[in-house]
């Protein structure tokens, strides 16, 4: 039987081949590889899609986070970097890039526990931390994990009350929304990733910063090109971090199919949800009523210490799975002595031992989906 991968990029390419090939052929004929016309067009189209004034292409989602944070530091403190005593609140249950961008911006990450039903940062923990007299907090980086929106009413409300910035890590959440507002476009800025497996993926690395704030946009753009308004006169300590013309061309070719791909993901998630919600030993996640999810991953919690055994049995049956994430950030060496925690982070620890993501290829056929559900049920029962 054909193995079922997490994601079949070749199948996706075959579906959009004509559009992608002709976009690449256009680049071959104009040969404007750096800041070619496709980059500007994509930035404009994404700003329109997200409903923000600005979108700035960068080399990766990690750079989008770092450069947005650096722009926020320059804007709010008049300094190139945050200082060690400046605290930025985030979740420990995320990809390492969220925390390491905070470290590299000069600030100290503060990891607070997650809501066990959504696995996103729990706004109540943020409130408690701030009410406890955390005077050095400067910002919050909520991560819309698996493409599921954080509670943006609560987070923006807390940020306003305590005068904090909000940078959304929307690397997994392009196309998602909170109360009809697109994710990445709600906070002071949002960071997107175009890594090949993301909702809109390119053929390598790529990322984007979205913001309504003219000053953040201006600074972010300068930081992408060595810190200057033009390349030969730097004002800030910048980077060489651009979205390639070729990648922008691929993304422009795929963009018209983004909504269809998201709908396919949502359909798959609904079928998984229906098939698995009553399965003993498996807990499905909750989608808040105000959230429009994107299911960059479809993740369940496997109870009773059975996660890794189940993954192994599924592998033997030809079904791929993945664990996002096995080690929460506060337990990683890189954050030792460089971060803070508040409370025991028990929910994040539990999620790290139970989370299992299932194949979520938008091009998956119904029969494949049924096979995943049936096999999973059989494996967990045995
Ligand atoms: C939550 C999260 N933040 C940040 C990133 C970093 O994006 P990139 O891989 O494009 O640098 C990723 C991508 O894997 C991610 O999943």
Summary of the model, kept short:
This protein is of the alpha/beta class and 382 residues long. It has helices at residues 9-30, 37-50, 61-77, 96-104, 123-131, 152-162, 214-224, 245-254, 258-276, 307-316, 346-354, 366-381; strands spanning 54-58, 87-90, 108-111, 137-141, 165-169, 177-178, 181-182, 189-193, 207-211, 282-284, 291-292, 298-302, 340-341, 355-358.
Tell me what the structure shows.
The chain has 382 residues and is α/β, with parallel strands linked by helices. The protein has 12 helices and 14 strands. The strands form 3 sheets. An 8-stranded mixed beta sheet has the order 1-9-8-5-4-2-3-13, sandwiched between helices. A 3-stranded antiparallel beta sheet has the order 7-6-11, with no helix packed on it. A 3-stranded antiparallel beta sheet has the order 10-12-14. Strand 6 and strand 7 form a beta hairpin. It is globular, with a radius of gyration of 21 Å.
Write the topology of this structure.
Elements: H1 9-30, H2 37-50, E1 54-58, H3 61-77, E2 87-90, H4 96-104, E3 108-111, H5 123-131, E4 137-141, H6 152-162, E5 165-169, E6 177-178, E7 181-182, E8 189-193, E9 207-211, H7 214-224, H8 245-254, H9 258-276, E10 282-284, E11 291-292, E12 298-302, H10 307-316, E13 340-341, H11 346-354, E14 355-358, H12 366-381
Parallel strand pairs: 2-3, 2-4, 3-13, 4-5, 5-8
Antiparallel strand pairs: 1-9, 6-7, 6-11, 8-9, 10-12, 12-14
């Amino acid at each position: 039987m054909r193995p079922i991968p997490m994601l079949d990029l070749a199948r996706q390419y075959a579906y959009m081949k004509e559009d992608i090939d002709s976009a690449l052929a256009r680049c071959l004929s104009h040969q404007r590889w750096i800041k070619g016309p496709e980059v500007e067009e994509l930035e404009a189209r994404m700003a329109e899609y997200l409903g923000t004034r600005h979108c700035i292409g960068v080399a990766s989602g990690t750079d989008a986070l770092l450069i947005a944070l650096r722009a926020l530091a320059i804007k709010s403190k008049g300094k190139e970097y945050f200082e060690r005593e400046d605290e930025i609140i985030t979740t420990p249950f995320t990809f390492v890039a969220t925390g390491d961008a905070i470290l590299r911006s000069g600030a100290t990450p503060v990891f607070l526990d997650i809501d066990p039903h959504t696995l996103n940062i729990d706004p109540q923990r943020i409130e408690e931390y701030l009410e406890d007299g955390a005077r050095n907090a400067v910002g919050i980086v909520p991560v819309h994990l698996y493409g599921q929106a954080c509670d943006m009413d609560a987070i923006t409300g807390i940020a306003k009350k305590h005068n904090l910035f909000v940078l959304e890590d929307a690397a997994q959440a392009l196309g998602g929304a909170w109360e009809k507002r697109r994710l990445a476009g709600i906070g002071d800025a949002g960071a997107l990733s175009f890594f090949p497996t993301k909702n809109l993926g390119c053929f390598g690395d790529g990322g984007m910063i979205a913001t309504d704030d003219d000053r953040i946009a201006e600074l972010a753009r300068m930081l992408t090109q060595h810190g200057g308004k033009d390349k030969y006169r730097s004002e800030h300590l910048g980077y060489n971090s651009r979205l390639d013309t070729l990648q922008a061309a691929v993304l422009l070719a795929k963009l018209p199919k983004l909504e269809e791909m998201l709908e396919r993901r949502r359909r798959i998630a609904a079928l998984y949800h229906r098939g698995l919600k009553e399965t003993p030993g498996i807990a499905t996640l909750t989608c808040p009523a105000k959230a429009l999810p994107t299911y960059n991953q479809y993740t369940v919690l496997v109870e009773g210490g059975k996660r890794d055994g189940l993954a192994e049995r599924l592998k033997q049956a030809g079904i791929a799975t993945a664990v996002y994430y096995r080690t929460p950030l506060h337990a990683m060496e890189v954050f030792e002595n460089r971060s803070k925690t508040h409370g025991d982070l028990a929910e994040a620890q539990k999620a790290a031992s139970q989370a299992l993501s299932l194949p979520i290829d938008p091009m998956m056929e119904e029969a494949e989906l049924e096979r995943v559900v049936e096999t999973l049920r059989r494996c967990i029962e045995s």
